[in-house]
Here is the input.
Amino acid sequence: MPRKTGYQTKQKMQLLAFFEAHPDRHITAAALLLELKRQGISIGAATIYRQLEKLEAEGLVRRYALDDRGSACWQYTGGQDGVCRHHFHLKCTECGTLFHLDCGHLNEIAGHVAAEHGFRIDPARTVFYGICEQCRSKSKE
Amino acid sequence: MPRKTGYQTKQKMQLLAFFEAHPDRHITAAALLLELKRQGISIGAATIYRQLEKLEAEGLVRRYALDDRGSACWQYTGGQDGVCRHHFHLKCTECGTLFHLDCGHLNEIAGHVAAEHGFRIDPARTVFYGICEQCRSKSKE
DNA sequence: TTAGATATGATAACAATTATCAATTTCAAT
DNA sequence: ATTGAAATTGATAATTGTTATCATATCTAA
Here is the structure.
């Protein structure tokens, strides 16, 4: 009979260990590979991508398409009620910083769009693009 | 002395002609290449990418990073007050359809985020991800 | 322990985009 | 119209992020 759960491999657990140690961090697959290798962990790029996909399917990790071009970012959520499940993100197109935006007023808009426009927004997957305060004041100088 | 404006080339004008003929359409570079070739126009892929970049810099065309992976989409805006400059977009992660969302209530949020969170959102560059009505009712069956 | 399912990792394949560069085209000044 | 410098083109190579392949290694229930 087919197995229901995957195997517990060294690499998968080390990946999870990394994420648990950095719960708030958004990281790319490439950076992840570097960090793990730096820790002396033997892991290949293919395994990183495969495991990220599986962890995403299990709801432990979330994928963000942050850049217009460039690579995706991943973040640990630790399950259904993960850190960034309910709020939006802001990404500054100038400096590239990603901000978390947890704001009741904004969170209402998901309800509004569902009710008025028949579209069920996934806040955690949505990123607002724009210019942050720092970059704005810099460009004024 | 160096020139200020670029040269008026056949290809660039044909590209613009296409966009002017399809003002509301979001199209990928690859699809653009196909369409132009279908019209008997001699143009290379590299030129498409280069000209799109230039047209974007001139503010005549706008780039959207629509897919998590996959290719970017482009749309004619015709200058500063282009069609999609002030409203948001919704992208269904199920069927891939892109919806325009012009709604006063939503447009307020840019003001809110600027005032309360010090971040100047660019609505035209921001895409909400979620599930559209059709796909939602389908998945209920 | 052992068998069979599953995971790994090196590498190839892939897709979208960008860089290279010789040949061509544009356009302002003659 | 001719010229010539600057800009553009297009075929192709290179790059980047990601996925597929497949032989080998690992896991785990029996």
